[in-house]
Design a protein that fits this description.
The complex is a heterodimer of chains A (451) and B (113). Chain A has 451 residues and is α+β, with helices and mostly antiparallel strands. Chain A has helices at 23-31, 46-56, 66-80, 93-106, 123-126, 137-142, 157-164, 179-189, 196-209, 261-269, 337-354, 398-409, 411-414; strands at residues 8-15, 36-39, 83-86, 113-118, 147-152, 169-172, 237-242, 247-251, 278-279, 284-286, 291-296, 299-303, 306-308, 313-333, 361-367, 386-395, 420-438, 445-450. Chain A folds into two domains: 8-119 and 154-310, no CATH class; 318-434, Alpha-Beta Plaits (2-Layer Sandwich). In chain A, the strands form three sheets. A ten-stranded mixed sheet of chain A has the order 11-12-8-7-1-2-3-6-4-18, sandwiched between helices. In chain A, strands 5, 14, 15, 16 and 17 form a five-stranded antiparallel sheet that branches. A three-stranded antiparallel sheet of chain A has the order 9-10-13, with helices on one face. Chain B has a four-stranded antiparallel sheet with strand order 1-2-4-3. Classes of the chains: A alpha+beta (451), B alpha+beta (113). At the A-B interface, helix 10, strand 15, strand 16 and strand 17 of A face strand 1, strand 2, strand 3 and strand 4 of B.
């Protein structure tokens, strides 16, 4: 069955997060029959971490795997005429574009046009006295020098403009994830920026693809109940999209994993909250009437999304330093393991009380018993042959954070019998707070480099 | 009977909000999900974890329910002291939910306004 006669665009997703596998993207570039390869590499906190890196070294702040990824895929992309769109610019799209230029020159690929999209960084606005529409403006200003970054979520527009200007590689900072995929559809099919139903369906395409392997059978397998073949060679997804916005989700033949109605449904509903009102900078997408149909092996048609006019605000993620966290872990095994681990936790708590060391938050987990779900803490600990105590606390200073791990370590010779395998850590916390900013306050900017 | 036997699930997160999807393997089991996987049952199942509102969305075309659990992630992924700060494991924990057997379910449906 041909789901949509007429011209289609094939877009692949080569990464669903910064630490994703690299070779499935190469497979897509070589065998996917793509026009576009998209890498989505920015989680909620990633850009704030990148901004911290940039503060230490102004030449950094882009994705740590940028060079490795581009080196791996650029030869096949060049050979097959595939354009690359990615948010691996993170907190420094210009430096990322410079790096991309270096990689292209090293590979002797001339005539490539590289676009850097900036303007998402609105940190300068966060400290201004007037930020109309910001609900908790006072809070943001009160952060003072704890403020690290403020980035607005840009939409598809600047990426569309970069493509219209002939960009082969588009590097962005913070952009709404689905916009990375919606942009090439707008560019190719000439969709209007107020064609809400099509923008809704294009946003659906982006949402389905943005987590890469999560729609091709990754994050789905339960060995006996819902097995998925060959996850070690999981193929990443391809969307075949028609001018009407109808989409077939598929993957490279012979790769691992599976594209089924079930894997597509899970990804469709992933993290969208209200399925009838998925807010993006480009459209308020409505997925509530979406239908999903298997039309062949690893081929699933997803249709029925629509949309309503976008809002006049953009989401902003504010990164700020939020104290420190210290942690220590120790294992106990054999008969009575759980009882000894519980005793160890009591000892640590008593020691802190004794020396008036009072972290504002302190948590003790028995990994294997109650670390994930608090309500299970009463369940049959006698059956458990090994357990790991984890003591973790929030502190105001790094020194205090380190003290938690030290106290757990001292259980070696001072605590219950048979404790082993201590690990400890202490780190500064970079927290994220989300808010809204008027759309008009954000001005996207595009710069081009040529190899 | 466990929910695990008739459904699959996925968890996601945004800030301090956990987002859980539950999907029937077989469309014929979907009415049972609608009747039995209620906000009240989910709240009781995640007692001590969820401190805010719970919203439920019903998606008949997909045979799915979506639950949005507010104040459920220890202050949010970036602040939480939990080992699974994203609450990714909540999907499987939700499938551990006990469902009443069919007779009981019918009675309950009859008596529920």
């Amino acid at each position: 069955m041909n789901a949509h006669p007429g011209r289609t665009i094939r877009i692949g997703c080569g990464a669903g997060f910064s630490g994703d596998r690299i070779e499935p993207a190469v497979e897509l570039a070589e065998k996917g029959g793509l026009q576009y390869l998209v890498f989505e590499c920015l989680a909620e906190r990633t850009i704030a971490l990148a901004q911290q890196a940039r503060l230490h070294n102004p030449a950094t702040g882009y994705d740590p795997f940028l060079v490795q990824r581009l080196e791996a895929v650029l030869p096949a992309c060049r050979k097959n005429g595939i354009r690359i769109i990615t948010n691996m610019g993170a907190a420094n799209p210009h430096a990322a574009a410079g790096k991309a230029l270096e990689v292209a020159r090293r590979l002797a690929l001339s005539g490539l046009k590289i676009a850097a999209i900036s303007g998402d960084d609105v940190t300068h606005l966060a400290t201004q006295t007037e930020w109309p529409g910001l609900a908790n403006n006072r809070d943001v200003r009160a952060l003072g020098d704890r403020l690290v970054s403020a980035h607005a979520y840009l939409g598809a527009r600047p990426i569309v403009d970069a493509l219209a200007n002939g960009a082969d590689i588009v590097l962005t900072g913070r952009v709404a994830d689905p916009a990375l995929f919606l942009a090439p559809l707008i560019h190719e099919f000439g969709w209007a920026f107020d064609d809400w139903p099509r923008l809704g369906q294009g946003t659906l395409v982006g949402h389905l693809l943005e987590c890469a392997g999560q729609i091709t059978g990754g994050y789905f397998s339960d060995p006996d109940k819902q097995p998925v073949a060959n996850l070690a060679r999981l193929g990443f997804p391809i969307a075949e999209v028609s001018e009407q916005g109808e989409v077939v989700i598929t993957k490279v033949a012979g790769s691992g994993g599976a594209v089924t109605a079930r894997t597509c449904k899970e990804q469709l509903l992933y993290e969208i909250h209200d399925p009838a009102a998925y807010n993006t900078p480009d459209v308020v997408a409505d997925f509530s009437a979406v239908t999903i149909k298997e039309v062949g092996p690893d081929r699933v048609v997803v249709s029925g999304a629509t949309g309503r006019p976008r809002s006049n605000t953009l989401k902003v993620s504010i990164g700020y330093r939020d104290g420190f966290v210290g942690e220590g872990q120790i294992s106990y095994a054999g008969p009575g393991a759980v009882a000894r681990a519980r005793l160890a936790l009591e000892i640590v708590r008593e020691r802190f009380k004794l020396f008036r060391f009072e972290p504002p938050e302190l948590r003790g987990d028995l990994i294997g018993v109650d670390s994930v779900c608090l309500t299970r803490s009463g369940s049959s600990p006698s059956d458990i042959s090994e357990v790991r105590l984890r003591v973790v606390g929030r502190t105001a200073s790094l020194e205090d954070a380190q003290r938690i791990g030290h106290e757990v370590e001292s259980l070696y010779t001072n605590g219950p019998a048979g404790g082993g395998g201590v690990t400890k850590s202490a780190r500064e916390v970079l927290a994220i707070h989300s808010t809204l900013i008027p759309r008009a306050a954000v001005r996207p900017k595009i710069d081009f480099l040529l190899t | 009977m466990k929910l695990y036997e008739i459904a699959h699930a996925r968890a996601g997160d945004k800030g301090d909000t956990s987002d859980l999807s539950v999907l029937a393997f077989d469309q014929r089991d979907f009415p049972r999900l609608v009747d039995q996987v209620t906000i009240e049952r989910v709240r009781a199942h995640f007692a001590g974890v969820v401190h805010g509102e719970i919203e439920r969305y019903v998606l008949p075309r997909l045979g799915a329910l979506k639950f949005v659990l507010h104040r459920a992630l220890g202050g949010g992924v970036t602040r939480s002291l939990a080992l699974d700060a994203h609450g990714k494991c909540y999907s499987s924990l939700l499938l551990d939910l006990d469902l009443p057997d069919d007779d009981e379910a019918e009675n309950q449906t009859l008596t529920t306004p």
